[in-house]
Amino acid sequence: MAKQKMLQFVTTAKEMPQKRQARDRAQDFNEIYAEFADRKAVEQASRCSQCGVPYCQSHCPLHNNIPDWLRLTAEGRLQEAYQLSQATNTFPEICGRICPQDRLCEGNCVIEQSGHGTVTIGAVEKYITDTAWEKGWVHPIEPAAERAESVAVIGAGPGGLAAADALRRAGVQVTVYDRHDRAGGLLTYGIPGFKLEKDVVLRRVAQLEDAGVEFVLNCNVGTDISFDAIRGKYDAVLIATGVYKTRDLAVPGAEAAGIVRAIDYLTASNRVSFGDEVPAYESGELNASGKRVVVIGGGDTAMDCVRTAIRQGATSVKCLYRRDRANMPGSQREVQNAEEEGVEFVWLSAPKAFSGDPVDAVTVQKMRLGLPDVSGRQSPEVIEGADYAEGADLVVQALGFEPEDLPAQWDEPELEVTRWGTVKTDFARHATNLSGVFAVGDIVRGASLVVWAIRDGREAADSILEYLTQPAQVAAE
User: Fold this and answer.
1) What is the pLDDT confidence band of residue 477, given thresholds at 50, 70 and 90?
2) Which residue from 107, 132, 128, 164 is spatially nearest to 44, judged by alpha carbons?
3) How far lies 110's CA from each of 52, 64, 71, 113, 341, in Å?
């Protein structure tokens, strides 16, 4: 009788891919996890319980068919596993690397809830698609038939690229506009290489270019080209700009030199990794080398900043967060990686003021958790008289991002936005109030996850295709 391929969680323990030693990985920006070997990927995939109600799938924003591609991997049918994975996810190798699986699929795994340790879904997902690229299973995008309609995508981040991929596969002529000199958005310039090596992103961009997607880079809509001109040139427009405006600290001394924005700090570091000349890095303004670094915030961006500072040679790196470890929004896996690399987390603390210009210290106020707020989370309260000074030569603000004022920047006052400044859409179709204009990702949701942007982009592409065919349908009637 053939051995049961699945449900091996009873006898096989959970294992992650081998992780590089902290002292070694802190010296460079290479990814910290090794690739699963074939045998180990099969073994770990076989731990899936194939449960009747797959919570991993229902808690994935893309509703990836995770149990089925785990089974195919366990059975050695890897090319089929890749095809199934790619069917619902435009960039599975990227999600496998940077999704917070501990909060999504893996965090809701049935065997995790029963105490056996989750299936390592993200690592298997990464392995499947990396193998597909290596084996040549990732085929060029070849539309069955070309269409005359054209679509402009504003923003080359994950939402815009996912939509461009789907539209081009349908034969639509696609042009992507982006303010940066490389496509990818935060995938390229916001996320450090130790989480997502850049060739992984750029090969997807190259796939789109080879398929005929036109990229217009170093182009600021509203300055280099008007939004109105774009609307006039294309049959439909997709807004996928993301959110880049930093939430600033409203405390005394916050304007001092040495207090920088997370996006500027991370972009500079990634540009250096590309080999670009970055004057603000060379001058030390956006370089942590030899400095006492304090990062303020508790999300994934803050984790990227503290781990980047370690690699740049900071003398000390501390992260201030106003709630406790259990209530922080960032990935617990990332916190563990940061602690291993030498980052010190100062929980229940917040900046009260800064001294010096350039900055030389942070006045830290200690906090405690009080009653829950409207979201159900306990609100931090200041403990009076518990302030102390923390020395700092570089302070990185990682308090999250807000939307830019697109109606003003683009001279398009008719574009409706919410009271938070995000673009207002019909969430079912991703359509704005402007005819033929759609919007996806963080510019609609607020700062969110890459996987949500990919889902939005794929859904919006379907809505745009429906919109483009409406005139033909009307004529037929």
Assistant:
1) very low
2) 128
3) 10, 16, 16, 5, 31
Kind and range of the H or E run holding 56:
helix 55-58
Scanning 260-399, the segments in alpha helix (DSSP H) are 262-274, 279-282, 300-311, 332-340
Residue 268: closest CA among 228, 295, 304 = 304
Of the candidates 178, 179, 183, 175, the one whose C-alpha atom is nearest the C-alpha of residue 234 is 175
Spatial CB neighbours of 275, under 8 Å, sequence gap ≥ 6: none
Give the amino acid at 334.
E
Which two three-digit tokens encode residue 277?
């000349």
Q: What is the pTM of this model?
A: 0.93
All domains of the chain in start order, with CATH: 8-135 (1.10.1060.10), 150-243+403-476 (3.50.50.60), 246-400 (3.50.50.60)
pLDDT of residue 36: 77
Quote the tokens at residue 477.
Answer: 């009637």
DSSP helix/strand/coil, 274:
helix
The set of long-range contacts for 334-342, using a CB threshold of 8 Å and a minimum separation of 24, is 334/100, 334/300, 334/303, 334/307, 335/303, 337/32, 337/303, 337/307, 338/303, 338/306, 338/307, 338/310, 340/22, 341/22, 341/25, 341/26, 341/307, 341/310, 342/22, 342/26, 342/310, 342/317
Task: Give the pLDDT confidence score for residue 1 in this predicted structure.
Answer: 33
pLDDT at 9: 66
Instruction: Encode pLDDT of 79-109 as tens digits.
Output: 999 999 999 999 999 999 999 998 899 999 9
Element (H, E) at 395: strand 394-397
- Res 399: pLDDT: 93
Dist CA 162 CA 454 (whole Å): 6
pLDDT digits (tens, 9 = 90+) for 168-208: 999 999 999 999 999 999 999 999 999 999 999 999 999 99
pLDDT tens profile 435-461: 999 999 999 999 999 999 999 999 999
CA distance 345 to 319: 5
The candidate with the shortest Cα–Cα distance to 263, out of 195, 191, 318, is: 191
Label the pairing between strands 349-355 and 361-372: antiparallel
